[in-house]
Amino acid sequence: MKNVIAKSVLEIEHNYGPQVVLLNNTYALTLLDQLSSKHCEKQNLTAYMRELYRILLSEALNLSIPKVSSQTETRMSELHPNNSTLDHSIFNNDTKLVTVNIARAGSVPSQLCYDQMNLLFNPDNIRQDHFFVNRKVNENNEVIGVDYSGSKIGGPTKDRIILIPDPMGATGSTIDHTINFYESLNQGDAKQFIALHLIITPEAILKLRQQHPKLLIVALRLDRGLSSADVLKTPLGTDIEKEKGLNQRHYIVPGAGGIGELMNNAEV
Question: Whole-model pTM?
Answer without folding.
Answer: 0.89
